[in-house]
Design a protein that fits this description.
The structure holds two protein chains of two kinds.
Chain A: H1 13-24, H2 26-37, E1 40-42, H3 50-72, H4 80-89, H5 94-122, H6 130-152, H7 157-170, H8 177-185, H9 192-224, E2 248-250, H10 251-276, H11 309-317, H12 320-340, H13 345-364, H14 367-380, H15 385-388, H16 401-422, H17 427-445, H18 447-450
Antiparallel strand pairs in A: 1-2
Helix pairs in contact in A: 1-2, 3-5, 3-10, 4-5, 5-6, 5-10, 6-7, 6-9, 7-8, 11-14, 11-16, 11-17, 12-13, 16-17
Chain B: H1 2-22, H2 40-54, E1 60-64, H3 75-82, E2 92-93, H4 99-106, H5 116-119, H6 128-135, E3 139-141, E4 149-151, H7 164-167, E5 168-179, E6 182-196, H8 201-219, H9 223-252
Antiparallel strand pairs in B: 1-2, 3-4, 5-6
The chains are: A mainly alpha, B alpha+beta.
Chain lengths: 468, 256
């Protein structure tokens, strides 16, 4: 414990007050020092580094607006839809709070997708930041749960049928599926029981986990230090006297003022949507969701909200022919490993047997189940990224140029998959989604191989920085 | 080989782009004259039509009568002209019809109209107002239907043509078209007057537009305030961004 400090009786009152708190709660002062005034961040962080603080901002906005919504919202199948319209019309400023919350949900995913892409670009998940990345992936998973539970609450047609479709996916799991779906729904159809439990998950259970994970994400980040666009460890070059990294600058004030600027620009875009286009052409608030949920009338076309659509596309792409393709891929991969892999004979045999079992399972269970597996795997695979990437250079800046093309095609396919998830399916679109799915998984699963290929550029000792 | 794959991918993308337009199908919606939304006389006329013609069967259960002060009516005017006997001016607009009976009569309970304009938008086809404006103007006599009415924008609609006294009776002119060997009847966009109504075609379009303007306004009464406030918020944030920019530059001057 820190020494108890006594100030002379004639010390200024402000100083006395600070000392009073310092003596009783030194942890707060220490936390401010470690995380703000003496947290040294690389000075070359660029545009992409705004999205972390923006995600934090949107999280706070969602919590604050959420609290006010809960004051007026009624989690009751008979009242929910009307209570949302009540908020929109009769609650003072209710419309603003509601639009901020609905726009915030989409904004959260926009900034988090960009935040994750930054990690991908600069290898921010590489040793020693694996845990930072894993906490981040868990946050993403929580956000998906939060978005899914929250979307049921307005109790419109899309809320209802979207939830119905997703819950039915769980029913595709062999043996336990139907019981699991029943457990989630709390009823044989999506109904009042479902709405009540989704409300509980949305307003308390998931946010608690989410907040805990955000704290872990930040603490772990501040322990290992921020990465930067050059992918250079700034702690390797310290000032011999002070021990401060030569390329590091104090988070406060430098990055606080920097982030205020970024936040301000972000808020301009955010408020422009809230005030001028809250429906965002049907992407943020789907038109069908202005019709109250009707269990007897299935909409002609059910599409999840945009932030789920890339994964939803992969699920829909997993048709019977796609399962056959997967069988061939598994067989080829196993044969290749057995033929080329530098493994002992026993391991090779195990791989071949494993592949045979996988193929039998692939053909035994319904394609719908494998669709669910593919969708789940598409998210889970992100957790393994730190070990899939074997590139000698962390940052894209020092990788072979064709790696940029690999990333570029990945982004294009991800966007195409997102778009396809909104569209009604057709043969051609399904084929395109299948190509996209294969590329998505190929990108990650073959990464241990391709990330090592090509001619890498020399990585400088110090970060590249042009003074402003 | 790679070239072939690229070619086929490109081709499929082109086909997809073409497909997106074709997917709309059905009747092309007419454009609702959006300037009506700024015209209080039109909105008030729409309110009158709504109360007289729609509210008998359709509720607007999230909409309060006295919210109509926002379109320039006084509470007295609302009380005297737009309120059913016995209703309070702060009450919501509820139709007297019994939902179960309505379902028996029309095949479906008349939907609540509070947010109908927002729910009917469709990407690529138009706004909900466009749809409603088209729908209210494409009724025609069809004796094969239980109500004797059909609609081009909403085929086999359950609702009869409530505004028929205003519009009169019309018949759409179809023509036979052969497309890929299939013969089909296609609407030419022209109408034949069977029995004239109290309004001529131009007056009726105008009245329908007024009613749609009211429905559109009612779906989000705060819309005008929202946009006006948004301008000020953006002006503030614009100024704040400039300050934040200079503040940032001032601090980062020392970072070499």
């Amino acid at each position: 414990m820190a020494e108890f400090k006594e100030l002379p009786a004639d010390a200024p009152i402000a100083q006395k007050a600070v000392t009073w708190f310092h003596n009783r709660f030194p942890t707060a002062f220490e936390a401010y020092r470690v995380h703000m005034s003496e947290y040294y961040a690389p000075k070359n962080m660029n545009f992409w580094y705004f999205f972390g603080v923006l995600a934090m901002l949107v999280l706070v906005l969602q919590i604050v607006t959420g609290i006010f919504l809960v004051m007026h919202y009624k989690p009751d199948a008979a009242l929910a839809f009307a209570s949302v319209e009540y908020i929109m019309r009769d609650v003072p400023w209710g419309w603003l709070v509601r639009y901020m919350h609905s726009t915030g949900a989409s904004a959260f995913f926009v900034v988090v997708y960009l935040h994750m892409f930054r990690g991908l670009l600069y290898g921010s998940y590489r040793k020693p930041r694996e845990l930072v990345w894993i906490f981040g992936c868990a946050i993403f998973l929580c956000m998906m749960a939060e978005g899914f539970f929250g979307y049921l609450l307005p109790w419109g047609q899309m809320s209802y049928w979207g939830a119905q479709v997703i819950i039915n996916l769980f029913a595709a799991i062999p043996f336990v599926g139907p019981d699991l779906a029943l457990l989630i729904r709390g009823d044989y159809v999506v109904g009042d029981a479902t709405l009540n439990r989704f409300f509980a998950f949305h307003v308390i259970a998931v946010p608690l986990v989410l907040l805990g994970l955000v704290v872990a994400h930040l603490l772990a980040l501040h322990d290992v230090g921020s990465n930067n666009p050059d992918g250079i460890e700034i702690k390797a070059n310290r000032d011999p006297k002070t021990g401060i990294p030569l390329d590091g600058i104090a988070f406060h004030p430098y990055y606080t003022v920097h982030d205020i600027m970024g936040v301000s620009v972000f808020l301009m875009i955010f408020t422009a949507i809230v005030f001028f286009a809250p429906e965002m052409g049907g992407y943020f608030l789907e038109f069908n969701n202005f019709i109250p949920a009707d269990p007897l009338q299935t909409p002609a076309h059910i599409a999840p909200v945009w932030y789920f659509t890339p994964f939803y596309s992969m699920l829909r792409a997993t048709t019977d022919p796609m399962v056959n393709v997967l069988c061939v891929v598994v067989a080829l991969a196993a044969l290749l490993a057995a033929w080329k892999g530098a493994l002992p004979g026993r391991a090779k045999l195990a791989i071949l047997v494993g592949a045979a079992v996988a193929i039998v399972l692939l053909k035994t269970f319904d394609a719908k189940f494998w669709g669910v597996v593919v969708m789940g795997a598409a998210v889970i695979i992100l957790f393994f990224l730190p070990w899939l990437d074997r590139s000698p250079a962390r940052s894209i800046r020092y990788r072979p140029d064709w790696h940029k093309a690999v990333y570029g095609v990945f982004v294009v396919f991800f966007l195409i998959l997102g778009w396809l998830g909104i569209e009604p399916p057709s043969d051609l679109k399904t084929l395109l989604a299948q190509i996209g799915t294969v590329y998505y998984f190929g990108f990650f699963l073959l990464m241990p191989w391709w990330s090592r290929q090509g001619t890498f550029k020399p990585v400088p000792d110090r970060v590249v920085f042009r003074p402003h | 080989m790679i070239k072939r794959i690229l070619q086929s991918v490109l081709l499929s993308l082109l086909l997809l782009a073409g497909g997106a337009h074709a997917a709309g199908g059905g009747l092309a919606w007419d454009k609702f004259p959006t300037e009506k939304l700024k015209d209080s006389a039109a909105l008030q006329h729409g309110a009158k039509l709504f109360v007289n013609y729609c509210l008998n069967c359709h509720s607007a259960a999230y909409m309060r009568y006295n919210r109509m002060v926002d379109i320039g009516l006084t509470t007295e005017q609302i009380k005297d002209n737009l309120l059913f006997a016995g209703d309070k001016v702060g009450a919501t607009m509820k139709a007297a019809i019994d939902a179960r009976q309505a379902k028996e009569w029309f095949g479906a309970a008349p939907p609540d109209l509070s947010v109908i304009a927002r729910s009917r938008s469709a990407a690529g086809q138009g706004s909900g107002a466009d749809y409603l404006y088209t729908y209210l103007r494409t009724y025609y006599r069809d004796d094969s239907k239980p109500t004797g009415w059909n609609n081009l924008a909403f085929p086999s609609v359950g609702m009869p043509h409530v505004l028929w006294q205003l519009q009169g009776e019309r018949r759409p002119i179809f023509e036979k078209k052969t497309d890929h060997g299939h013969e089909s009847e296609v609407f030419t966009g022209r109408w034949e007057v069977v029995k004239a109504g109290t309004l001529d075609a131009r007056e009726y379009d105008n009245a329908a537009a007024d009613l749609v303007a009211f429905l559109q306004w009612m779906s989000e009464p705060v819309q005008k305030t929202r946009v006006q406030l948004g301008v000020w918020v953006l002006v503030f944030l614009g100024l704040f961004t400039v300050i934040a920019w200079f503040l940032n530059a001032a601090y980062w001057k020392d970072v070499k």
